[in-house]
Design goal:
Colicin transporter; transmembrane helix; 354 residues; 8 helices; transmembrane; mainly alpha; single chain; rod-shaped; membrane
Length: 354
Protein backbone atom coordinates (compact mmCIF):
# COMPACT_ATOMS: atom_id res chain seq x y z
CA UNK A 1 0.00 0.00 0.00
CA UNK A 2 2.84 2.32 0.75
CA UNK A 3 4.39 1.58 -2.58
CA UNK A 4 1.18 2.37 -4.37
CA UNK A 5 0.88 5.68 -2.56
CA UNK A 6 4.41 6.53 -3.52
CA UNK A 7 3.70 5.73 -7.14
CA UNK A 8 0.60 7.84 -7.10
CA UNK A 9 2.53 10.71 -5.59
CA UNK A 10 5.20 10.33 -8.20
CA UNK A 11 2.54 10.43 -10.90
CA UNK A 12 1.10 13.64 -9.54
CA UNK A 13 4.51 15.12 -9.33
CA UNK A 14 5.10 14.51 -12.97
CA UNK A 15 2.03 16.49 -13.79
CA UNK A 16 2.75 19.56 -11.62
CA UNK A 17 4.09 22.84 -12.98
CA UNK A 18 7.60 22.75 -14.31
CA UNK A 19 10.30 23.95 -12.10
CA UNK A 20 13.36 25.86 -13.00
CA UNK A 21 11.95 27.88 -16.00
CA UNK A 22 11.06 25.01 -18.18
CA UNK A 23 8.34 25.78 -20.65
CA UNK A 24 5.16 23.97 -20.19
CA UNK A 25 4.25 21.76 -23.01
CA UNK A 26 0.54 22.06 -23.96
CA UNK A 27 -1.12 19.13 -25.45
CA UNK A 28 -1.59 19.34 -29.15
CA UNK A 29 -5.09 20.10 -30.41
CA UNK A 30 -5.98 17.91 -33.22
CA UNK A 31 -8.87 19.22 -35.28
CA UNK A 32 -11.59 16.91 -36.32
CA UNK A 33 -11.01 15.16 -39.56
CA UNK A 34 -7.37 14.51 -38.90
CA UNK A 35 -6.06 18.00 -39.60
CA UNK A 36 -2.73 19.20 -38.31
CA UNK A 37 -2.71 20.76 -34.87
CA UNK A 38 -2.80 24.63 -34.68
CA UNK A 39 -0.37 24.83 -31.90
CA UNK A 40 -2.66 27.66 -30.27
CA UNK A 41 -1.85 30.46 -32.81
CA UNK A 42 -4.52 33.06 -34.12
CA UNK A 43 -4.47 34.67 -37.57
CA UNK A 44 -2.86 38.09 -37.65
CA UNK A 45 -5.79 39.74 -39.46
CA UNK A 46 -8.29 38.78 -36.76
CA UNK A 47 -7.38 41.40 -34.18
CA UNK A 48 -7.61 44.44 -36.52
CA UNK A 49 -10.92 43.21 -37.85
CA UNK A 50 -12.31 42.78 -34.37
CA UNK A 51 -11.08 46.19 -33.34
CA UNK A 52 -12.55 47.80 -36.46
CA UNK A 53 -15.88 46.13 -35.90
CA UNK A 54 -15.94 47.27 -32.32
CA UNK A 55 -15.05 50.86 -33.28
CA UNK A 56 -17.65 50.94 -36.03
CA UNK A 57 -20.25 49.59 -33.66
CA UNK A 58 -19.41 52.23 -31.10
CA UNK A 59 -19.51 55.01 -33.71
CA UNK A 60 -22.77 53.79 -35.13
CA UNK A 61 -24.25 53.51 -31.69
CA UNK A 62 -23.05 57.01 -30.91
CA UNK A 63 -24.48 58.39 -34.12
CA UNK A 64 -27.76 56.68 -33.55
CA UNK A 65 -27.91 57.95 -30.00
CA UNK A 66 -26.99 61.49 -31.07
CA UNK A 67 -29.57 61.38 -33.79
CA UNK A 68 -32.23 60.25 -31.37
CA UNK A 69 -31.31 62.98 -28.94
CA UNK A 70 -31.18 65.61 -31.69
CA UNK A 71 -34.56 64.55 -33.02
CA UNK A 72 -35.99 64.86 -29.57
CA UNK A 73 -34.43 68.32 -29.15
CA UNK A 74 -35.72 69.41 -32.59
CA UNK A 75 -39.19 68.11 -31.83
CA UNK A 76 -39.26 69.88 -28.49
CA UNK A 77 -38.03 73.13 -30.11
CA UNK A 78 -40.65 72.89 -32.87
CA UNK A 79 -43.42 72.26 -30.35
CA UNK A 80 -42.27 75.16 -28.18
CA UNK A 81 -42.09 77.48 -31.17
CA UNK A 82 -45.53 76.42 -32.36
CA UNK A 83 -47.06 77.12 -28.96
CA UNK A 84 -45.43 80.55 -28.81
CA UNK A 85 -46.62 81.47 -32.30
CA UNK A 86 -50.14 80.24 -31.56
CA UNK A 87 -50.30 82.36 -28.42
CA UNK A 88 -49.03 85.36 -30.36
CA UNK A 89 -51.64 84.86 -33.07
CA UNK A 90 -54.29 84.95 -30.39
CA UNK A 91 -53.25 88.52 -29.61
CA UNK A 92 -52.49 89.67 -33.15
CA UNK A 93 -55.40 88.36 -35.20
CA UNK A 94 -57.23 90.62 -37.64
CA UNK A 95 -60.03 91.40 -35.19
CA UNK A 96 -57.59 92.13 -32.38
CA UNK A 97 -55.45 94.38 -34.56
CA UNK A 98 -58.54 96.35 -35.60
CA UNK A 99 -59.52 96.82 -31.96
CA UNK A 100 -56.00 98.01 -31.13
CA UNK A 101 -56.11 100.56 -33.94
CA UNK A 102 -59.53 101.75 -32.80
CA UNK A 103 -58.31 102.13 -29.23
CA UNK A 104 -55.20 103.97 -30.41
CA UNK A 105 -57.44 106.52 -32.17
CA UNK A 106 -59.41 107.44 -29.04
CA UNK A 107 -58.77 111.01 -27.83
CA UNK A 108 -58.45 112.32 -24.30
CA UNK A 109 -61.77 114.19 -24.47
CA UNK A 110 -63.57 110.94 -25.33
CA UNK A 111 -62.66 109.07 -22.16
CA UNK A 112 -63.45 109.37 -18.52
CA UNK A 113 -59.82 108.85 -17.47
CA UNK A 114 -57.22 110.51 -19.72
CA UNK A 115 -54.43 108.36 -18.25
CA UNK A 116 -55.70 105.39 -20.23
CA UNK A 117 -54.99 107.24 -23.47
CA UNK A 118 -51.41 107.91 -22.38
CA UNK A 119 -50.91 104.26 -21.41
CA UNK A 120 -52.25 103.13 -24.79
CA UNK A 121 -49.86 105.37 -26.68
CA UNK A 122 -46.92 104.09 -24.62
CA UNK A 123 -47.77 100.43 -25.22
CA UNK A 124 -48.08 100.98 -28.97
CA UNK A 125 -44.69 102.67 -29.00
CA UNK A 126 -43.10 99.77 -27.11
CA UNK A 127 -44.57 97.34 -29.65
CA UNK A 128 -43.03 99.45 -32.45
CA UNK A 129 -46.38 100.16 -33.96
CA UNK A 130 -49.45 98.07 -34.60
CA UNK A 131 -48.54 95.69 -37.39
CA UNK A 132 -48.92 91.96 -37.84
CA UNK A 133 -45.77 90.04 -36.79
CA UNK A 134 -44.07 87.62 -39.17
CA UNK A 135 -42.87 84.90 -36.78
CA UNK A 136 -43.10 81.39 -38.25
CA UNK A 137 -42.21 77.86 -37.24
CA UNK A 138 -41.30 75.26 -39.88
CA UNK A 139 -40.25 71.65 -39.41
CA UNK A 140 -37.46 72.19 -41.90
CA UNK A 141 -35.85 74.79 -39.67
CA UNK A 142 -32.96 73.86 -37.43
CA UNK A 143 -33.32 73.42 -33.72
CA UNK A 144 -31.46 76.66 -33.02
CA UNK A 145 -33.61 78.60 -35.50
CA UNK A 146 -36.76 77.20 -33.95
CA UNK A 147 -35.57 78.24 -30.50
CA UNK A 148 -34.78 81.74 -31.80
CA UNK A 149 -38.22 82.07 -33.39
CA UNK A 150 -39.87 80.87 -30.20
CA UNK A 151 -37.97 83.47 -28.17
CA UNK A 152 -38.93 86.19 -30.66
CA UNK A 153 -42.59 85.14 -30.58
CA UNK A 154 -42.65 85.21 -26.77
CA UNK A 155 -41.04 88.64 -26.74
CA UNK A 156 -43.57 90.10 -29.18
CA UNK A 157 -46.37 88.33 -27.34
CA UNK A 158 -45.40 90.16 -24.16
CA UNK A 159 -45.50 93.51 -25.91
CA UNK A 160 -48.89 92.86 -27.45
CA UNK A 161 -50.19 91.62 -24.14
CA UNK A 162 -49.46 95.12 -22.83
CA UNK A 163 -51.15 96.63 -25.89
CA UNK A 164 -54.19 94.41 -25.29
CA UNK A 165 -54.48 95.50 -21.65
CA UNK A 166 -54.10 99.17 -22.56
CA UNK A 167 -56.66 98.88 -25.37
CA UNK A 168 -59.22 97.30 -23.06
CA UNK A 169 -58.65 100.00 -20.46
CA UNK A 170 -59.01 102.93 -22.84
CA UNK A 171 -62.06 101.37 -24.49
CA UNK A 172 -63.72 100.81 -21.11
CA UNK A 173 -63.00 104.43 -20.16
CA UNK A 174 -64.53 105.63 -23.41
CA UNK A 175 -67.61 103.48 -22.92
CA UNK A 176 -67.99 104.81 -19.37
CA UNK A 177 -67.96 108.39 -20.61
CA UNK A 178 -70.30 107.53 -23.46
CA UNK A 179 -72.75 106.01 -20.99
CA UNK A 180 -72.49 109.02 -18.70
CA UNK A 181 -73.08 111.42 -21.60
CA UNK A 182 -76.04 109.40 -22.86
CA UNK A 183 -77.69 109.51 -19.44
CA UNK A 184 -77.12 113.27 -19.16
CA UNK A 185 -78.50 113.85 -22.67
CA UNK A 186 -81.60 111.83 -21.86
CA UNK A 187 -82.20 113.81 -18.68
CA UNK A 188 -81.90 117.06 -20.65
CA UNK A 189 -84.29 115.78 -23.30
CA UNK A 190 -86.82 114.70 -20.67
CA UNK A 191 -86.79 118.21 -19.20
CA UNK A 192 -87.32 119.73 -22.64
CA UNK A 193 -90.17 117.36 -23.36
CA UNK A 194 -91.88 118.09 -20.03
CA UNK A 195 -91.73 121.86 -20.64
CA UNK A 196 -93.12 121.47 -24.14
CA UNK A 197 -95.93 119.26 -22.86
CA UNK A 198 -96.98 121.97 -20.42
CA UNK A 199 -96.57 124.89 -22.83
CA UNK A 200 -98.41 123.25 -25.73
CA UNK A 201 -101.68 122.74 -23.90
CA UNK A 202 -104.41 124.13 -26.15
CA UNK A 203 -101.89 125.19 -28.79
CA UNK A 204 -101.77 122.11 -31.01
CA UNK A 205 -103.76 121.19 -34.05
CA UNK A 206 -103.92 117.54 -32.96
CA UNK A 207 -103.92 116.80 -29.24
CA UNK A 208 -102.89 113.18 -29.95
CA UNK A 209 -99.34 114.45 -30.44
CA UNK A 210 -99.28 115.59 -26.83
CA UNK A 211 -100.50 112.17 -25.71
CA UNK A 212 -97.65 110.58 -27.65
CA UNK A 213 -95.19 112.95 -25.99
CA UNK A 214 -96.44 111.99 -22.55
CA UNK A 215 -96.03 108.31 -23.41
CA UNK A 216 -92.47 108.90 -24.63
CA UNK A 217 -91.62 110.70 -21.38
CA UNK A 218 -92.92 107.75 -19.36
CA UNK A 219 -90.92 105.25 -21.41
CA UNK A 220 -87.77 107.35 -21.12
CA UNK A 221 -88.05 107.19 -17.36
CA UNK A 222 -87.80 103.39 -17.56
CA UNK A 223 -84.46 103.34 -19.42
CA UNK A 224 -81.77 101.48 -17.48
CA UNK A 225 -78.67 99.32 -17.85
CA UNK A 226 -75.00 99.88 -18.53
CA UNK A 227 -75.32 100.29 -22.29
CA UNK A 228 -75.47 103.77 -23.76
CA UNK A 229 -77.66 102.56 -26.63
CA UNK A 230 -80.72 102.17 -24.39
CA UNK A 231 -80.48 105.81 -23.29
CA UNK A 232 -79.77 107.06 -26.80
CA UNK A 233 -82.79 105.20 -28.14
CA UNK A 234 -85.02 106.70 -25.43
CA UNK A 235 -83.70 110.19 -26.24
CA UNK A 236 -84.34 109.61 -29.94
CA UNK A 237 -87.94 108.56 -29.22
CA UNK A 238 -88.41 111.68 -27.12
CA UNK A 239 -87.03 113.88 -29.88
CA UNK A 240 -89.40 112.34 -32.41
CA UNK A 241 -92.38 113.02 -30.11
CA UNK A 242 -91.14 116.58 -29.52
CA UNK A 243 -90.91 117.17 -33.26
CA UNK A 244 -94.48 115.96 -33.77
CA UNK A 245 -95.79 118.30 -31.08
CA UNK A 246 -93.84 121.25 -32.51
CA UNK A 247 -95.21 120.50 -35.96
CA UNK A 248 -98.74 120.42 -34.55
CA UNK A 249 -98.18 123.74 -32.77
CA UNK A 250 -96.89 125.27 -35.98
CA UNK A 251 -99.86 123.92 -37.93
CA UNK A 252 -102.26 125.52 -35.47
CA UNK A 253 -100.38 128.81 -35.61
CA UNK A 254 -100.59 128.82 -39.38
CA UNK A 255 -104.29 127.98 -39.29
CA UNK A 256 -104.89 130.77 -36.76
CA UNK A 257 -102.96 133.24 -38.87
CA UNK A 258 -104.92 132.29 -41.97
CA UNK A 259 -108.20 132.64 -40.10
CA UNK A 260 -107.13 136.04 -38.75
CA UNK A 261 -106.09 137.19 -42.21
CA UNK A 262 -109.41 136.10 -43.66
CA UNK A 263 -111.32 137.86 -40.89
CA UNK A 264 -109.26 140.99 -41.42
CA UNK A 265 -109.91 140.87 -45.15
CA UNK A 266 -113.62 140.48 -44.59
CA UNK A 267 -113.65 143.37 -42.14
CA UNK A 268 -111.76 145.56 -44.59
CA UNK A 269 -114.16 144.61 -47.36
CA UNK A 270 -117.16 145.47 -45.20
CA UNK A 271 -115.55 148.76 -44.19
CA UNK A 272 -114.91 149.61 -47.82
CA UNK A 273 -118.52 148.80 -48.67
CA UNK A 274 -119.77 151.07 -45.89
CA UNK A 275 -117.48 153.90 -46.95
CA UNK A 276 -118.60 153.54 -50.56
CA UNK A 277 -122.26 153.73 -49.54
CA UNK A 278 -121.59 156.83 -47.41
CA UNK A 279 -119.75 158.51 -50.28
CA UNK A 280 -122.59 157.77 -52.64
CA UNK A 281 -125.12 159.23 -50.19
CA UNK A 282 -122.99 162.33 -49.69
CA UNK A 283 -122.58 162.81 -53.43
CA UNK A 284 -126.31 162.49 -53.95
CA UNK A 285 -127.05 165.07 -51.22
CA UNK A 286 -124.49 167.51 -52.66
CA UNK A 287 -126.04 167.29 -56.11
CA UNK A 288 -129.47 168.04 -54.64
CA UNK A 289 -128.25 171.17 -52.83
CA UNK A 290 -126.50 172.45 -55.93
CA UNK A 291 -129.62 172.14 -58.02
CA UNK A 292 -131.67 174.03 -55.39
CA UNK A 293 -129.13 176.82 -55.18
CA UNK A 294 -129.14 177.32 -58.93
CA UNK A 295 -132.91 177.70 -58.90
CA UNK A 296 -132.71 180.38 -56.19
CA UNK A 297 -129.86 182.34 -57.77
CA UNK A 298 -130.84 186.05 -58.31
CA UNK A 299 -130.69 187.70 -61.68
CA UNK A 300 -128.12 190.42 -61.90
CA UNK A 301 -128.00 193.29 -64.26
CA UNK A 302 -125.52 196.03 -64.67
CA UNK A 303 -126.16 198.88 -62.35
CA UNK A 304 -126.65 202.45 -63.63
CA UNK A 305 -127.74 205.84 -62.46
CA UNK A 306 -131.22 205.84 -61.13
CA UNK A 307 -133.43 208.83 -60.17
CA UNK A 308 -131.05 211.67 -61.00
CA UNK A 309 -128.32 210.83 -58.58
CA UNK A 310 -125.41 212.22 -60.50
CA UNK A 311 -122.75 211.81 -57.87
CA UNK A 312 -121.97 208.16 -58.61
CA UNK A 313 -123.50 204.71 -58.27
CA UNK A 314 -123.01 201.68 -56.07
CA UNK A 315 -122.65 198.38 -57.91
CA UNK A 316 -123.38 195.03 -56.37
CA UNK A 317 -120.75 192.35 -56.99
CA UNK A 318 -121.35 190.62 -60.22
CA UNK A 319 -122.25 186.98 -60.08
CA UNK A 320 -119.56 184.74 -61.45
CA UNK A 321 -120.33 183.50 -64.84
CA UNK A 322 -120.80 179.76 -64.97
CA UNK A 323 -119.17 177.99 -67.83
CA UNK A 324 -121.35 176.19 -70.21
CA UNK A 325 -122.22 172.61 -69.66
CA UNK A 326 -122.77 172.59 -65.92
CA UNK A 327 -122.04 174.26 -62.66
CA UNK A 328 -118.38 174.53 -63.52
CA UNK A 329 -117.39 173.67 -60.00
CA UNK A 330 -118.91 176.89 -58.48
CA UNK A 331 -120.32 176.47 -55.02
CA UNK A 332 -123.41 178.63 -55.37
CA UNK A 333 -124.58 177.98 -51.85
CA UNK A 334 -121.39 179.47 -50.48
CA UNK A 335 -121.53 182.39 -52.83
CA UNK A 336 -125.13 183.20 -51.93
CA UNK A 337 -124.33 182.92 -48.25
CA UNK A 338 -121.55 185.45 -48.62
CA UNK A 339 -123.56 187.94 -50.68
CA UNK A 340 -127.14 187.57 -49.49
CA UNK A 341 -126.90 190.81 -47.43
CA UNK A 342 -126.61 193.78 -49.78
CA UNK A 343 -123.82 196.15 -49.12
CA UNK A 344 -125.09 199.36 -47.53
CA UNK A 345 -125.58 202.16 -50.02
CA UNK A 346 -123.71 205.36 -49.62
CA UNK A 347 -125.59 208.41 -48.68
CA UNK A 348 -126.98 210.23 -51.69
CA UNK A 349 -126.37 207.22 -54.04
CA UNK A 350 -128.69 204.60 -55.37
CA UNK A 351 -128.20 200.96 -54.41
CA UNK A 352 -127.03 198.65 -57.10
CA UNK A 353 -129.53 195.88 -56.36
CA UNK A 354 -133.00 196.53 -57.88
Amino acid sequence: MADQDDEGAAGLGSVSAPVGGEAATLPAIVPEGGGAPSNGRRPRWLVPVVVTVVVVAVVVAGLVGWRVVENRRHGAAFESCSRAVKALKGKTGSAQMDSYREAAGIKSDQVKDAKTVVAMARSVKDAEGIRKPTVRCKASMSTDDLNDEADQARKIDGKYAAVDRAAKAVTASRDAKTLEDAKAALDTKKGEASRLLADSDGKVADNATRDGLQQAIDQAGQAKGDKAKAYRDAAAALQAAIDRVNASVQAKNQADQQAAAQAQAQAAQQQAQRQGAAQRRQASSSNGRRGSAQSRRPAYRPSGNRGGGGGGSSQAPAAPSAPQGGNGGIDWDQWIEQHKTPSPCKKGEACGIG
